[in-house]
Amino acid sequence: MTRNATTCGGCLLSAAGTTAATLWWGTSGRTRRHLGNGFEGEGTDYGVLWTELPLVAVAGAALPALVWGLVAYALSRRRRSERHR
Q1: Which of 4, 36, 60, 71 is the most buried (most CB within 10 A)?
Q2: Which residues are listed as membrane-spanning (predicted)?
Q3: Would you list the domain boundaries of the chain?
Q4: Chain centroid, CA 39 distance in Å
Q5: pTM for the model
């Protein structure tokens, strides 16, 4: 795998992870309850938009990128050890 393909793959996985995590967070019952889905808007707390949402987006981007980096590192290390045999 070339370096450009590896970088592009990691970026694509980060974007997909951020999108998936944000959508999952937005459709959860807990989030809907905080954003006014309670009885007559009871319990509405818009603070989750600037406290939880950024953390969900960062975690959604970081986790796939971390896994992709570990897999790419392991594959490159394996290739190097096979080349030196």
Answers
A1: 60
A2: 55-75
A3: 3-83
A4: 32
A5: 0.72
Tokens representing 27?
Answer: 């459709």
Roughly what angle, to the nearest 10 degrees, separates helices 48-83 and 3-27? 150
**Which residues neighbour 25 within 8 Å (Cβ) at sequence distance 6 or greater?**
31, 52, 53, 56
Q: How far apart are CA 12 and CA 18, in angstroms?
A: 10
- How many Å apart are CA 40 and CA 12, to the nearest integer? 40
pLDDT at 33 over 90: no
Place 68 in a pLDDT band, splitting at 50, 70 and 90: confident
Cα-flanking dihedrals φ and ψ of residue 56, to 5°? -65, -45
63 token code pair: 């986790």
